[in-house]
Amino acid sequence: MDATLHTPKLQHLIYCNQTLILGNGEAHITTMPNNNNIIHSNDQSSLTSSTSHSSESNDPFSTGKWASKLLRECAKAIADKDSSKFHHLLWMLNELASPYGDCDQKLASYFLQALFSKATDSGNRCYKTLTSVVERNHCFETARKVILKFQEVSPWTTFGHVASNGAILEALEGETKLHIIDISNTFCTQWPTLLEALATRNDETPHLNLTVVATPAMERSVMKEIGQRMEKFAGLMRVPFEFHLVTGLARLGELTKEELGVREGEAIAVNCIGALRRIDVDKRVDAIRMLCGLKPKVVTIVEEEADFTSSRDDYVKCFEECLRFYTLFFEMLEESFAPTSNERLALERECGRSIVNVLACDNEEGEGEEGEESDRREKGTQWCEKMKESFTPIGYSDDVIDDVKALLKRYRSGWSLLPAQGENNEVGLYLAWKEEPVVWTSAWKP
């Protein structure tokens, strides 16, 4: 094995190289209106009288963590169709929530939006409105600034990049024609480090064909500019390089080798980061089988550790899991970013859109409109069950694990690496925030 491919320098280069791809410049994020006061004043007068009926023995404000208690009660009131209790709690949350406050106020604000949409059967409309706002204000510079800042302060995404790059480089070692099929929403920030590693190989520099399967959120204009920057960077690294963009993530299971530009003699790697969850739950096994049909040398999977699928029919359980996951995420953002960070606000708003999708949208499988994305996350154990039908797990080498550990040392305390373990023969690695697994990564072969 070429030792130059698996040293901590792989992740040390990640920031400067990504900047070359994403470019420089300033971005301005347009703020959205505060969602406070979504209940009209005439509604509040009728709700105020219900305060006397709430004789809670446990004061939700006594511990300081009031949002989760009120939100859980509100979700249960919706499930129980208890309109009186729901309206009272809704009024309380509306008075206390703010997308510009502390962590509890923010959680209350974004979950309130989803609960209100669920109660009024306006989830699909709310989600489309939020999506249109994102698309209207989306531009390359905004995406660049948010992505780079997030990767600077948190290993949430770079963890998967380093682990996947290490597995891909090992699996494709010695090959002269490489084809990476990138099914992710990371805007190619993963690949500069890999290009650097290919350029420093002791043997002949291979030809790299990179095909990006774009999600609906990745606008063609943005990806075209990123593709041009990738080609320029590959030229600087003296790596023979081709870039292709393919749309159709929603029908991933139906994509053909021809559509993906697969050629004879290429060693194929498939990279899936935060993308499989965007496929309808009932179509995920078909997508995995299609990937197996490509006969790749390696498939890398990175997904966030949350289960929004098995409890779809139990609203309270689904709500509990959603609240658990996003509480971790929001607390991580609060400790990682400055209070006035525009990048943090943009990430939180994107979470708000996902929360509405999961908790308030009527997006039964097969009924969504063309181009709509699922947002039903699954845990590592669930992905393992699906993958093992078509693939065999590949363990990470000590070199790759050392690279990941070196990466985590660059960040504030609280982050750790956990091996997969459990009764279901789970495989892969977990990124943990304060001992709670938040991101799962693994590698597979047919």
UniProtKB/TrEMBL annotation:
Record bears the keyword Transport: no
Pfam families assigned to the protein according to its UniProt record, in alphabetical order: GRAS
The keyword Magnesium appears for this protein: no
Chain positions covered by the region annotation SAW: 360-445
Coiled-coil residue spans: none
Region (Disordered): 33-62
Biased composition (Low complexity): 40-59
Region spans: VHIID: 147-212
Motif (VHIID): 178-182
Keywords per UniProt: Transcription, Transcription regulation
Family: Belongs to the GRAS family.
Protein name in the entry: Protein SHORT-ROOT-like
Lineage: Eukaryota, Viridiplantae, Streptophyta, Embryophyta, Tracheophyta
